[in-house]
């Protein structure tokens, strides 16, 4: 049997003590685990639901080479793995009876894990989404800007934020990481959502940001209601939060875009975002694995 060098834990502090330096060593590629573990750390472990999260680090010769987290009932998230590392992890999780609804990782890692999960459990993965990670180069605000201005969302915008959060999650076919009121309250408290509003003060688009971790900030989410799209509002809001992230001292400003949406990919590139890596999301039939 091949050696299994995965250390699994439900203890966030243990995971960060082992893998924190590894995650910070490549903050752009590790932006999701960095921001999720920061949310868990600052919100006392229940930021993503009541069921305990699971963390893991792949260690060899005393050094961490890969890591993962899973916040049930959401998908497993992996840093880059070799096919063999993906296989040993899939075998370990299947043997322990973990129910995984899917996996998200860089394209090669996600494909390798999906193949291994099928081999060890008999489930049939389906490709859900392909994403591209972008990093801001030189910010180039859209010209001409749509009429209006950017404004940080405040208490008076709570209902609007709650509504747009629900609409955004439904639009991308996702699941709520928190109820909309908690989501809105957290972002209002820390000034983490910017509206683009028309001259009469009507919000028409929003762009949010994650907290700064390891000198990087990720823009998320970006949302414009369907009937207001195609007018440059999302580009203006994204440029505004990107400028604010630069002013806050972020060394790297990142965002993800669905590769099936050429409009958003083109928009981000026009305002200065450059490709870093491609990611993939697979869904697994949500049933207890039959270990093979």
Q: What's the order of the H and E elements?
A: EHHEEEHEHEEHHEEEHEHE
Mean pLDDT comes to 93
Task: Please report the total strand number as a whole number.
Answer: 12
Question: In terms of per-residue confidence, which ranges show pLDDT below 50 for 5 or more consecutive residues?
Answer: none
Rg result: 20 Å
Gap between N and C termini, in Å?
14 Å
In short:
The protein is α+β, with helices and mostly antiparallel strands and 292 residues long. The protein has 8 helices and 12 strands.
Protein architecture, described:
With 292 residues, this protein is of the alpha+beta class. 35% of the residues lie in helices and 27% in strands. A twelve-stranded mixed beta sheet has the order 1-2-3-4-5-12-6-11-10-9-8-7, with helices on both faces.
